[in-house]
Amino acid sequence: MRCDLHVHSRHSGLLGLPLFGPAARESFSDPFDVHEVARARGMDLVTLTDHDSIEGALALRSRFDDSFVSEEVSCTVPGGREVHIGVFDIDEAQHQRITELRRDAEALFAYLAEQELPACFNHPFSALTGARESADLRRALRGVPLVETRNGLLPAAVNECAEAAARALRRPGIGGSDAHTLRSVARAFTEVRGARDKREFLDGLRRGFTLPRGCSGGYRRLAGDVAALFASGCREAARVRPAALPLALLLVPLLPLLPLATALIALREGAFARRHFGALLSEQPARPRLRPPDAGALQAQAAR
Asked: What secondary structure letter does DSSP report for 145?
């Protein structure tokens, strides 16, 4: 069975741009549209991993037997930095407790283990979640049992760093599209071989019987998604905040710069991954098991 274990909907919240208000969202995808697209692209099960929210996932579960509730937790580590943890197959009481604990990483990891909840360190070598230190990587890699090794938004070489780290620490890998638009849903996903229903899939997820599948992302996927989000933001502004629409339209002349901006983001992702993977490598006692991807390949793949 297959499931995209990292996908967002309009319930993932706002980008924090006051002038645009609700016209600047992490995603504009309706949960039911996500479900329809995921099933059409071959997913047997559907979940949402919205940022610190289960509202959309609850709506899906109330209507579809092939859905379960998940979220992407913004977990604060010492120093005030963040790591993102995907948590799957939860109920409302567990979500509430996770919300209470998410600013204390060690307490959160202990609770997830106590509840035997499948949990994954998402995009460990991505710069998109902000500044990071190697101690943050070590803490999250050892704190949860799964690692996202196939992220459908990130360049292949960045995913290779995650895969190498997971292999070194004997952590099972999973896949997810990290889709913020419908165009990217189910482009990467997780397979549990032999699972015949939702219960067996989730049991396989808990036991780490997972296979990351699908495609990595990169420059083209990122550029397309950013353009799609901008278009959706303009439509949302016209609908719910007309005063923000002229400001959004003022950005239209800057759209020709989008390819350059996204190329720089993709290259930054490669440099970030290379730097932090190198730091992790230097601290790894069993170095032969942890090999860095070729630096030239990182740069070339990030630019694609």
From this structure: S
CA distances from 60 to 69, 108, 281 (A): 8, 26, 41
Q: What is the largest CA-CA distance in the chain?
A: 58
Q: Give me 90's structure tokens.
A: 């939860």
Alpha-carbon span 190 to 151, nearest angstrom: 10
Low-confidence ranges of the chain (pLDDT < 50): 17-20, 286-288, 295-304
**To 5 degrees, how large is the angle CA 217–CA 220–CA 222?**
65
**Cα three-residue angle 119-123-125, rounded to 5 degrees:** 130
C-alpha dist (Å) from residue 215 to 186, 275, 292: 9, 24, 21
Exposed/middle/buried for 77, CB within 10 Å: 0-12, 13-18, 19+?
buried
Backbone φ and ψ of 163, nearest 5°: -65, -40
Q: Cα separation of 167 and 186, whole Å?
A: 24
Q: How many residues does the chain have?
A: 304
- Residue spans of the domains in the chain: they are 2-219
Q: Cβ distance 103 to 79 under 8 Å?
A: no
CATH 3.20.20.140 describes domain 2-219: yes
pTM: 0.84
Q: How far apart are CA 302 and CA 217, in angstroms?
A: 9
